[in-house]
Structures are given as structure tokens and as C-alpha cells.
Amino acid sequence: MAGKIARSVAAVLTVAVLASGASITGVLLEAQPALAASTQPEIDAAIAQILRETNAERAKAGLNPLVLTPKINAVAQSWSEQMAAKKSMTHNPGYSSGIPQPWLRAGENVGHGYTTSTIVGAWMASEGHRNNILGDFTHIGLGYWVDATGRAWFTQNFAKYVIPDPTMINDPVTTVGKVDFTSTWPLKWWEPKYDYYVELHSPDGSLLQTQTVTQPTVSFTGLAGDTTYTVEITARAVDPPGQTYLSPVKSYSITTLKDWPDITPPAVTFRDADGTEDDTFTIPAVVGVDYLVNGTITPPGTYPGKDSVTATVKAQPGYVLTQDADTTWSATFKVTPYTAIPAAVTF
């Protein structure tokens, strides 16, 4: 009994362009009789063996293993069944459009009359088919069907996709309040977009809340003050054929602020008299805040005023400024001397 194989490959310059594969018929090869596969488990076993042997050949060449994908499997399986029904080995003229878009490259091998133990070896013995098996692809779909005479029909469909890389590259940046916090984490971005699964754990490790977000930011509210929580983030991405990729879990701790009353800081005051000797500014004494003068923390007190002075205030750890409180004050001291108008001398 003679077996036949054929090979086709389609490639495009951009992922937006569709292309049909040109059929290239391979040489005739001797094949062993095939056994009928009448159950899904037998089909699954055949596909598993072909995948294993295909990836073994790629491993010998130092190449990445191909990912078996149900959506591409469906294209390949349908074509094997159609070839068996028609008893004609041809290439699928629509395989490149049946494979989920957008792909970068797509290819196809077909064959019949071989067994699951000999088909990969037959393809590898043919240069064109070997080029597909060892080609620049990332995913594969496999089809296997046995006709009424016991002859097996095989299809391999190949595709190359941009593999999502959901690896986090920076630690989250967190803004913490007394009963809430917001975290934002910069990541690598590829197509397709990620979503993020976030867990919030209590100090004893219990799961308190979960969120799934589509942007790299999350907020939690209703928390206890002065309490340490653990946050765990997993980035998830799905490629066009439906393969899911998960990042390593990113875990970090946050501690909410102490439940102190909000502080409304008193203003820094300025005295700008004519002349310079009496020019001053005064930093008030307030528990829970630091005043900074021109960027330097300055203790409470009255200081000589000169040139331009900008004072700001910030809460110390465990304290919170009242929302919308004034936090910046500034003044430029005049240097114009006091103008004295002498009284007339009288006689």
C-alpha cells in the first residue's frame, strides 16, 4: 500500500493580510496498513503521539515545542475527515483563513495511508514537509481520521503568533490611606491585552477580597487602619487561538495609616515691613506635620525673611492632612528701604 504526503506553507508580511496556501504534492512513499480509529479516545491518542514526535524532532533541532491548540485542531480535524470522505488527498484551500487571526505565518502538511507511528518520519524524510515541522511556528493543530477501508488521513496545520509575555517588570506603586489604598504596576504590554487577577489577604493569610481588572491598577476600600495586608497579583493574557498565559504571582505588603484625626495645618505667616531688619516668617508648632522651607524641614519658630520663601507642609507617618487643606505658602520680601520724610526745622 502506498502512502502519500503533501505540504503547503503560507506566509504574509503583516498579520492583517490573509493568504491561501499553495498546494505542493510530495513524493509517493510506501506506508503500512492503518487501523481504523472509531472512537474519540483513539483519535486523541493518535494526535498525542504525532504531537510528541513532532516536538521531539523540533527539540533535536533546538527549537521551541509547538503548542497544540483546540481552535487549530478543529481546522485540521475537519480537513482530515473531508479528505477521507472524498478519498482524495489535497490541501485545504481555506486553511489559512480558518486558523485564528492574526497569525504571522501559517503552514500545512497532509498525508494518508501511514500509521501514527510512521507519518512523522515520512514527513521528516521529505524536505518541504520537514521545513514545516522545523519551521518558524509557535502553534499546531492536528487532524486524524480513518476511512472505511482502514486508511488513515492526517493533517498538520501550523501557525506563528506573537506570544504574550505577562512578566511584571516593576514593583507596584501604592498610595495608602487609613481605610483604603490604590496600587499601580507598570508591565510589558503586548497584543492581546492583559487582565489582572488580584487577591487581598488579611494579616492571618485569609482571603478577604478579589478583583479582576483590565488595567494595571486596583483599589481596595473598607479596610482597618494601622493594619498590614498582603496583595497578590497575577497577570493573564490569551493569544488568538485561545491559549492562556499566566505571570508569576506578584506579592507585596501594604500597611494602612493609623486612625488619627485629620490635621488642618495652620498657615505659615509672613511679616514684610519696610526695610529688611524686621522682615520675618513664622512656622507654627503642630503635632503630626513637618513644615519645609524651600524644601528643607524647618522647626517651629520665627525666622528672618529674605528674598523668596516657599513653605510647604506634609503629614508625618501615621497622620493625614485634611482633604483640600492649604499646604503651600510663599512670599517675596521687598528690599526697598523705609523712606523717611524729615520734618521741617522751625524757627
From TrEMBL:
<protein>
    <submittedName>
        <fullName>CAP domain-containing protein</fullName>
    </submittedName>
</protein>
<dbReference type="Pfam" id="PF00188">
    <property type="entry name" value="CAP"/>
</dbReference>
<dbReference type="InterPro" id="IPR036116">
    <property type="entry name" value="FN3_sf"/>
</dbReference>
<keyword id="KW-0614">Plasmid</keyword>
<feature type="domain" description="SCP">
    <location>
        <begin position="51"/>
        <end position="158"/>
    </location>
</feature>
<dbReference type="InterPro" id="IPR035940">
    <property type="entry name" value="CAP_sf"/>
</dbReference>
<dbReference type="InterPro" id="IPR014044">
    <property type="entry name" value="CAP_dom"/>
</dbReference>
